[in-house]
Amino acid sequence: MRLEIDVGNTFVKWRWVSDGTITKALRCLKEPFLSRIADIDEPELVLDELCDIWIGSVAGREFNEALTRALKTRWDITPLFAVSASSAAGVRNSYIEPTRMGVDRWLAMLAARHQDDGASTVVDCGSAITIDYLSAQGEHLGGYIVPGLQMMRASLLNNTANVRYDDEDLLSIEPGTHTGACVNNGTRYLLQALAGQLLEEASKSGSQLYITGGDGYLLQAQMPGALLVPDLVLDGLMWADKQ
Length: 243
Prior knowledge:
Its EC number is 2.7.1.33. It comes from Neptunomonas phycophila. It is built from 6 helices and 13 strands. By secondary structure, the protein is α/β, with parallel strands linked by helices. A 6-stranded mixed β-sheet has the order 3-2-1-4-5-13, covered by helices on one side. The chain starts with a strand and ends with a strand.
């Protein structure tokens, strides 16, 4: 039995894996996660069967150290954290300092590589939207990082005195007739533009598009042929170097 954990900027996702089968998967906001360690047991788990805890985390050293202490207290197992490397499992990192790449991006690329050995574009729509390109030979060709939908909306609130709006769940991209619609539809309009650009690039290069992250469903809905893989980061843990 293995416990796999993906610690993002906002949410934590975890799942139990037994003999290659996912038996349970959950998520919660990052902040209360440490206090919930005692509540994340798999109901059928025999504690002696838990052998490994694998983690991909972008939360920073302080949170990771607190998480390690909590997991050791709960199960007496030292977790293994995935690290971004110069190469792993057929993927070669383009960064001069590979460990400076966010491990979530690295894990998502490793997972995508093992779904399809052709060229791929990996898009993670979370707090930030990250876009990474892999060649058919597994070379990381670089990428982009842009604000996610919530971050874009928050920046308008924080940096523009006269922009105030209710966080409405609007799906339209029509021009807004009040501030809430202008902000929500405007960010979705930008997401549509991004989707169009990615589709055009993929058509020219023959690249398979992989979408993950909390807002991934919004992007994938505008991208025929793109694959939505909600647990792409967790899937990459199998292929990553760990320490």
